[in-house]
Please model this.
Amino acid sequence: MAYSEVETIRKTLPKTALTDLAKEVVKRVANNLRAPIPPELRPTSAQIDELCQALLSQDPLAAIGLIEQAQRKGFSYDTLCQIYLAGAAARLGEWWDEDQLSFYKVTIAASGIYAILRTLRLQRTLPVQDLRRSAIFASVPDDTHTLGITVAADMARDRGWDITLLTGLSHDALVEEVENQDTALIGLSASGKRVLPAVLKLIVALRLCKPKARIMICGRLAAMDLHLDGIVGADVAAADFDTAFDYMEKMMNAAPRAP
Model:
């Protein structure tokens, strides 16, 4: 599913926005390159190069096949994410900086990394979330229209919800704040098409750091026929308060988000 989502984006966004999305995936995955792992469980430089070439191919199964082989060899989730995929992302970033890769090739590779990492994290056994009535409401970076999300937060609190309201934050600061909070629902407010690239970039980042969370797009952008409840992993687009609150109530009894 993640492959088709990124393919949809590639067909609808300008090149500058696509570049930002590709950089976001490569940067966030490469930043996971950490954690001491025994040398015998580390992929070799040749294996990382092989994964890079598979990611650069137009066959979505090529890279998945290498990941499945690594899983059968006993590579753990941490090794796959923090060393294997992160190493590939770092190498692709180097090739990009050195102009060894075209823009088109980088977006192909980024979509592959995004799809694989989402799948790995969703496959991982995690503790059952405490689905208490809490949510994060946030305005999209660079969107100065925050009155609607502020009013929505107050209305949700009146309905018994514990709402963390985040406005005026940069992209990185907002992602870091959300990543450090335990919540099952994230509501993003976007006032119009002008902030669509920022919305998609934010959803990609949140999908990578919070794969189990539900993401709800609200505001004027949600009222436009852009199929946001599918692109890059948004769960629903709520154009008005009633739709948003109805979804929030249904979400409380919903099964965990599927890939």
Q: What stands out?
A: The beta strands are 134-139, 162-166, 185-189, 214-218, 236-238. The radius of gyration is 19 Å. Residues 77-97 form the longest helix (21 residues).
